[in-house]
Amino acid sequence: ITLPQGISAKAMVYIMNKSAIPGIPSPYYIKTIYQGYLDVGINTTYLANICGNCGFSLEQHLIKAGQHPH
Q1: Rounded to 5 degrees, what are φ and ψ at 2?
Q2: How much is the mean pLDDT over the chain?
Q3: What is the pTM (predicted TM-score) of this model?
Q4: pLDDT tens by residue, 41-57
Q5: Is 42 exposed, middle or buried (0-12, 13-18, 19+ CB in 10 A)?
């Protein structure tokens, strides 16, 4: 992507379906995102921080989805 300041950066983005209702993602969805982080070698601390900022625990969501954090 190119930021407004003209700086280029690699990024992963999510474009939400127009019919989706914003809210806390399901444990299964978080498990899928977590696995993607592991698959491509992204530090999962970033995901944990984002989850915490949104008011829920990454670890609790993963356990609900049947996966224990690495």
Answers
A1: -115, 120
A2: 89
A3: 0.71
A4: 999 999 999 999 999 99
A5: middle
- Separation between Cα atoms, residue 35 and residue 12, nearest integer Å: 14
Q: Which position has the token pair 């914003």?
A: 22
Residues 31 and 65 sit within 8 Å (Cβ to Cβ): yes
pLDDT surpassing 80 at residue 14? no
Q: What is the 3-state secondary structure (H, E, C) of 25-63?
A: CCHHHHHHHHHHHHHHCCCCHHHHHHHHHCCCCHHHHHH
Rounded Cα–Cα distance for residues 51 and 30 (Å): 9
- The sign of the CA dihedral 5, 11, 66, 29 is positive
